[in-house]
Structures are given as C-alpha cells and as structure tokens.
Write a structure and sequence with these properties.
38% helix, 10 helices, 338 residues, 9 strands, alpha+beta, two-stranded antiparallel ribbon
Length: 338
C-alpha cells in the first residue's frame, strides 16, 4: 500500500507513546474522507485511528487536527459519545503534517440517511438517537468542559456567511449563478442574533455517526474538524439537509417514500431533538438554506483541492457537481415553511 508518510517514523512514534511492539504497525487508509486523511493503525495489541492534515497548501485555519483532538478530550466525560483521544503530535516533520490518534471503536458507519445497512425496524430508532445525541451535545456548557474559548460567541450566522462567502469568492472555479442567488437571499434574510451559543459540531450528519454493532444507537460522533462555538440551529440545519437533497446528492432521502423505507419525516426528527434540547429556538428555512449554502461552498473547495491534487479522497472530483445541486436545493428551501 502506498502511503503519504514513512511507516517507520510512525512505528517509532507509537513505540514512544504506547510501548514497543514486536512487529511493524499495520496501516490501512480509510476511504471516503474528503478532508483530513484517516487511517486504521494496529500497533501491538492497540487498535488505533490516526487523523492527519492533508499534504499540500492549506487554507488558514482549515484541517485543524489540534482542534479535533481538543474537543474530543473535552467531551470525554460528558453524555456525548466520542472516541477516546490518546495523543496529539504537533511536529509536522514526523509524518509530513501534524496528527493525532484515538482509540478505534467497533461499530457501523452508515453513509446515507436511507440506512440500507439496517433492518427497517432499526432505521427510525437510529435517526431518533442521532437527534437525541445532537441535543445532548448542545446541552453541554462550553465553559464547563474547558471550551469557553473554542470560538467567538454571538453573531454566528453573520460571521459564517462572511467566512464562506469569502471562501467561495476565492475559488478559481467559474461562478455558480445559483450559489450567488442563495448567498444573496441568506444575506437579506439574516435573523437577529438571539444569543444562543453551543458547542457546534459543524458537520452533524449520519455519515459522521458510528452506530453500535447491533443496536440502533449512536456510540460515537466522528469528524470534528469543523467544530467551534456556534449556534445550535446551525447544527440542526446541517442534520436536516438530507430531507432536502436526493439520494445521489451526498446520501439524501428527498424523493424516497419515507413510510415505505421506515424513515422518519424531518419534523419528527426535529421534535426528538427539541425534547432533548428544549431551549433551542424553532428551526426555520433560513437555517437549512444556510446549511445547503455552506456545504455548496465546501464542495467548491473540494473540487479546487481535487484539481490541485491535494484532496484526501480519490473520488473528490466527483463531488464538484454537488456545489450547484446543493445551491439549487437551498433555493428550494427558501420557499418552504416548517
């Protein structure tokens, strides 16, 4: 297997962290990631997961594996299920970029909300537990777990719109008229800041949940690269994108017969979330449209990285059309009422 780093260097590092092993580490790259390269590593009797920054030039603040490690450590003793973060290495000389390792859990990762991997009777319970898990995350007070400085509280949507609009403008790709229109609608429809602040995952979707090996419940929330202090309705909007995107658009369920597939409606998912997080304000079309906009810009960035040869996944170029698709879906959301 071809790696982007020297496995001998990783073996020496693991020997220092966990004690010497009799054999070289077994290393397997995990496919499917679009950002930070991720690997299974077996060192002696330790089963690990390694996350590192991708090679090549990076946007300022992007691929912050140090922040991932910090938030995993902070949430370790809360009701939010996360893998055990074991060690962080800031020295880029060892593997070419900073990295960290966490304990490997045994479970199921289902990339789409349709959940074909699960028995029909388990699909609704799994999605409802995902909603409860998000509510538990937003119930954690940042100051109580040492994350009071994990981001800037207040004016979250205004700051995020500025950030992602700048990133979109910086792309070398041709402009997308639908994305321009969605950006303009969101800027005009910006809600007043209500002061709500929570630890925001930033990419809360089924593909970033690990389910129990047999039971329909979440045992770990993965991929915290985009986490920060943010507005809880941003995360809820991200989690609800699947009901507004088709199966061929990053695993959505728009157009499926939800009853026939034993899948809940979006309003039922949101209701379960609010049972766990009753102080969060109601979800509005703005929040879902914002989620679609942000992910459309992320897909623009993935396409840019694919063109530059630095995307983490070999299939990254296939996601380029999703920028336009998500922009169109976001525009459709603006005409809805929840």
């Amino acid at each position: 297997m071809s790696l982007e780093f020297d496995p001998t260097a990783l073996r020496r590092w693991c020997d220092r962290q966990f004690g010497p092993a009799d054999t070289p580490p077994e290393i397997t790259r995990i496919s499917g990631g679009q950002s930070n390269p991720t690997f299974y590593v077996t060192h002696g009797d330790r089963r690990l997961v390694l996350r590192k920054q991708p090679p090549g030039p990076l946007l300022k603040g992007a691929h912050a594996v140090d922040r991932e490690f910090r938030v995993l450590r902070a949430l370790a003793d809360t009701e939010v299920p996360v893998p055990e973060a074991l060690a962080f290495e800031p020295d880029a000389v060892l593997l070419g970029t900073p990295f960290y390792v966490m304990a490997r859990l045994e479970g199921r990762v289902c990339p789409t909300y349709a959940l074909p991997e699960l028995a029909p009777a388990d699909r609704g319970p799994a999605l409802r537990d995902m909603a409860r898990t998000l509510g538990r995350l937003h119930a954690v007070r940042p100051d109580a777990v040492g994350l009071g400085d994990y981001g800037r509280p207040g004016d979250y949507f205004q700051r995020q719109m500025s950030r992602w609009s700048r990133q979109y403008a910086a792309s070398a790709a041709d402009p997308i008229p639908e994305l321009d229109a969605l950006r303009d609608w969101l800027s005009a429809a910006m809600p007043e800041d209500d002061g709500a602040v929570a630890i925001a995952h930033g990419d809360f979707r089924m593909g970033n949940m690990m389910l129990h090996p047999t039971a329909p419940r979440v045992i770990a929330v993965l991929d915290w690269e985009l986490s920060t202090l943010g507005h809880p309705l941003a995360d809820l909007g991200f989690a609800c994108m699947a009901w507004h995107s088709a199966p061929g658009e990053y695993g959505g369920i728009l157009g499926l017969d939800l009853a026939a597939e034993a899948l809940p409606r979006m309003d039922a998912f949101v209701a379960v979330y609010h049972e766990t997080a009753p102080t969060t304000a109601p979800l509005r079309p703005f929040h879902v449209a914002f989620a679609m906009f942000r992910f459309a810009v992320i897909f623009v960035g993935i396409a840019d990285r694919a063109a530059a040869g630095s995307a983490a996944d070999r299939d990254a170029a296939d996601l380029a059309p999703l920028a336009r698709a998500f922009a169109r879906r976001g525009l459709a959301v603006t005409d809805l009422s929840f």
